[in-house]
Structures
1.
Amino acid sequence: MAGDPYAALGVSRDASADDIKKAYRRIVKTDHPDLNQEPAAVARFKAASAAYDLLKDPEQRRRFDAGEIDAQGQEQGPRWRTRQHAGAGRNPFGDAAGHAGDPDLSDVFADLFGQRTGGRAGGFGGFGGFGGARADQRGQDMRYQLEVDFLTAVRGGRTRITLPEGGTLDVAIPKGVRDGQTIRLRGKGAPGLGRAPAGDAYLDVSVTDHPLFRREGDDIHVVLPISLDEAVLGGKVQAPTIDGPVNLTIPRGATSGQKLRLRGRGVNGADQHVELRIAMPRSVDARLAAFFEEWRQENSYDPRRGMSTG
């Protein structure tokens, strides 16, 4: 990465760590090579990734701001040395330090001076120029699909996936991961060439549905059946949550569709919303029918009053 890492992310030098992370995520969503193949987008993504790698580490950021290291994380000092009489046909940069080992520049030199073969760039070693310098290139990023069950997604956990090319990958599922979110595993992509690091693995998360729970943002929603007598008389019942059952107080005279809130029982401290639904008994016996016949004579009411469209 060359230039100013703050400019690459589009943030000011006094930006907070959260601002830096948000800026990087915005660029990933628009310019990741899997989403946008335009050369300008690829370049922006590459610059932003290198900038984020530097600035997300508080100590590295401090040292960069203080001028102790450059934008590549190298100790600050003269990067280029000019040879006065570079021979004709030789590398125009002479034997300048920092070129051959810079993974961000290796592709450029390979294109300019020859094709990469056997981990070396033709036109460098023994051909006049860099005298055997290796073509260090960062490994390719890899992308995989990862299906996660609902409860593991909201509670976090660990899983192991089998890679299409063979082998396995252990993955830590962050608490609260969302459907469609991407998990980045640094250094778990394809191996790099020479001394360059491996690429990253990107896991596109697909969260399966749950038979009881539904998620909206970080809130959890559930429908809770209650009996006829619980609706009339109220009482305490057990309600399922993503962390296990809890006691819930049903108010006297509850009705279907009424919603109760369990504070802090959602994802990351959000809430759970419980929608009550009255479930009639499987059969209405003679005593229950007789009771309601008598009750209706004295307490009849019309719950549909006011619904007429005429």
2.
Amino acid sequence: MEKPKLSRKERELAFRMNLVLDAAEDVFNEHSYATASVEEIAHRAEISVGTLYNLFHSKEEIYRAVVSRGQKLFFENIEIRVDAARGPLEQVRATVTYFFEHFTSVAGAFRHYNTATNGFQWELKSQLEQEAFEMQQHFTMRLVDICQRGVDDGVFKGGVPPELMATTVLGIPHSFLMVWLEQGGVDLMSLEPSCLALTDRVLGAASDG
């Protein structure tokens, strides 16, 4: 089903909101949530502070919109990577590889996010986590199908429910990400080969593909 076309007014509003989010993303990346100001975001977006507040009610709301947009883009791009990969093993590896590439590209912002959310109101943090959870659940269901196909084709080992296999596959790069966060100065991409090798072992796939 095609999405209904937006009216001119709706397109203009979306354009202005994205201008603000682009500016806010730059400001949050350069500073931190705590030190970023609404005034600077408005200046970067080339609008008045009053106009900005007509679009977003607070800095927290702007930050939530920035993070939500980033989360949506992450899952949209990972779906594209999976679509382009051939076969179950290549699709799983594409998932892991994009995970590392994405978080390397937003490393500074991600560290700021982890710092910022510790000080957020619980309601706002819960909303962000719920949105990410729902998008991850959607992608997990696709990964379940990929794992099932891998087992059916004899590419992955049998005996493990595809739901458990998919959940484990997603958990592995996340665990590496947590290690990276705790160990400052470690190059995230340097952990990718070990993560791929561990993923292959979990799947029961040959390391050479």
